[in-house]
Amino acid sequence: MIRFLFIFIITILFTSSVFAQDDTTFIIGVDSVRIEKRAEKKEVRIAKREARRIKNIRPYNALAPSKAAFYSAVLPGLGQAYTGKYWKIPIVYGGLGTSVGIALWNHDRQNEVRDIFKARQRGIRTDRFINQETGQELISDDGLARAQRNFQRQKELSIAISVGLYVLQIIDANVTAHLQQYNLNDKLSLAPQLEIDQNNAQPNYGMSLTYKF
Length: 213
Hints:
Elements: H1 2-56, H2 64-74, H3 78-82, H4 88-121, H5 141-179, E1 188-196, E2 203-211
């Protein structure tokens, strides 16, 4: 009886170890499949990114940068369309439209205040900055003069910003056309770097040039 019980226990232990080994093998097999799938997906992403990079490289054309700059000078945003960067066009017109709109608004307010100021100098006091019932000035003559100067400064600043944005979109089109003719490799990168000196705990700034093999 004891011998039979001993054989039964040995059989159960052996069977359990076999099943445990099978489970371990199954888990390892599943993990291997997952790792292979992840590796395949990564390779597909890298291949797609490389295909997009190669597709964006255009045949060498010495006149392409000049054409892009000329088109942007003639019509803002046209150079971006020439280089295929269509998503930049709304940004160009959004910036130019806002700055030009602010300049025009300040120009109109300046003219309005100037006309009121001139009318007061001629003795006409029927403007909207005077309470017609009591004759009290809501804005004095000095206040009108200061308002004219303020609107003038804001108008000039808006014009300067508009000119800056206009020139910037020309430069952007020119530089983009230049870069599209060169094979830019993702393996080569240039990035700013910050290191802390272990001796005096002071930051050291520099540039890091990295090439991935």
